[in-house]
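Dear colleagues,

I hope this message finds you well. In preparation for our joint manuscript, I am sending the NifU-like protein 5, mitochondrial (Entomophthora muscae) sequence together with its predicted structure, so that both groups work from identical material. I would be grateful if you could confirm receipt.
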Amino acid sequence: MIYKSLARAFYRSVPAFNAIHASRIHLVTSRQSLKPTLTSVNVFSKQLARNMFIQTESTPNENSVKFIPGIPVMGDKGSMEFITSREAMASPLAKKLFLIDGVESVFFGPDFVAVNKTDTVSWPQLKPDVFATLMDFFSSGQEILDDGHSQASDTRIEPGDSETVQMIKELLETRIRPSIQEDGGDIEYMGFDNGIVKLKLRGACRTCDSSSVTLKHGIQNMLMHYIPEVQGVEQIQDDLEQLSNSVFEKVDGKLNS
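The corresponding structure tokens are as follows:
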């Protein structure tokens, strides 16, 4: 579970926290490396007469799988998620992946692509098309995003940020984000107001059944332990997610009445 990954990051960071909390300086640490280990597929392209080795890694979300091409995807440009085919127009790769029947959303991480599928297809059905699409795209040398589209860093320290906000951003970037990316997702900082840190889960984490556990018992506990000014964490949802939840609640209410 994602919560376990956060727990490991938490305990690794406890010794370093004493100095941080005492002097109120930024956290300084190295990024954790992603370690794909589960399965691998060798995809052959006759046209290019070359092999591309794509690894896959499962996530806590059974409908989401990480595809790791062995080369940078977003690199140091952060991450980007595409929930609809309209959003996918910003990326040639995302557009191609959305053409595959059963692909529900696409997430680009530093060196992986996480694909979320619908319940109507199985991974054995979907994986061959995803592999072929990824191989063709990365072999073509195309840019991952169209010209004019870029992803700004949500944890970049701004001149007007308070000391507390700076510490929140640094902790998210160096301790929390790497652990979540290991599970095929990401987290986006949305603001800090009256002691509440506003965050948005991305990728595999967004639709994972354990997302609320991750947010409340993992991220919230870590932030509150390190930064006394933090009183809680609130999940921010996209308009599409809010609409889906509203419809689900109405249907569930009718069934229970």
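For the figure legend, we might mention the following. Strands lie at 39-45, 50-58, 64-68, 80-82, 103-108, 113-117, 185-193, 196-203, 232-235. The helical segments are 2-23, 92-98, 123-140, 163-181, 211-226, 239-256.

With kind regards,
E.M.
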